[in-house]
Amino acid sequence: MTSGEHAQPAKGSHVLRSVISILAMILAVVVLSWALRSFVVHPYEIPSGSMEDTIQIGDMVFSEKLSYYFSEPQQGDIVTFLDPEVDGRTLIKRVIATEGQTIDLRDGEVYIDGVRLDESYVDGQPTTPLTPSVGKEITYPYTLGEGELWVMGDNRLNSQDSRYFGPIDTDAVTGRAFMVYWPFSDFGLLS
Q1: For residue range 73-113, what is the model confidence (pLDDT) as tens digits?
Q2: Catalytic residue flag (residue 11)
Q3: Which of 63, 65, 93, 162 is the catalytic position?
Q4: Out of 50, 63, 159, 162, which one is annotated catalytic?
Q5: What integer pLDDT is reported at residue 191 of this predicted model?
Q6: Which residue pairs, CB below 8 angstroms and at least 24 apart, start in 55-61?
Q7: Does residue 23 belong to any structural domain of this protein?
């Protein structure tokens, strides 16, 4: 080899660099996917009719986590949360009342701090007390303690919610459901 010639890299090292590059890209995609799902947005499939007509059985929704890094859930938010009755299961309901508020159920209507709640999303269904789960005692009016939320499904005649299992802790909330993304016929933002 003369001083003007350059050594060509071996063909095997070029293939090895390509394989390492592809593996690094796959690893980056997996890590990014995990980070997005763990800290930003999580998809859920709706298994029951407890949120009908707002969300249908089989709808796929996105629940975002960023909002609750900076603020607490608010009345009217649709939240995903860890089921207080079944380990490992996630539920989706609407926040009806927050810490310190008093909820009352009278004549099929919901009252928060003595004021009737305007709930167009229940489509005229009455809201009545449920028989609480074993070991729970729920009487109305019910005042929420520190860090507690009262959640109910929009389909009041077909929802086991805070009327059944009591209030949930804000720490149990995993995100705010904000959009139905599938099926396309139900696509839209949630309110």
Answers
A1: 999 999 999 999 999 899 999 999 999 999 999 999 999 99
A2: no
A3: 93
A4: 50
A5: 86
A6: 55/92, 55/154, 55/177, 55/180, 55/186, 55/190, 56/186, 58/183, 59/180, 59/182, 59/183, 59/186, 60/180, 60/181, 60/182, 60/183, 61/92, 61/177, 61/178, 61/179, 61/180, 61/181, 61/190
A7: no
17 is a domain residue:
no
Domain span at residue 101? 40-189
Give the domain CATH number at 169.
Answer: 2.10.109.10
| Predicted TM-score (pTM) of this structure | 0.82
Number of domains in the chain: 1
Q: Is residue 118 part of a domain?
A: yes
> 27-42: per-residue pLDDT in tens?
888 887 776 777 778 8
Is 162 an annotated catalytic residue?
no
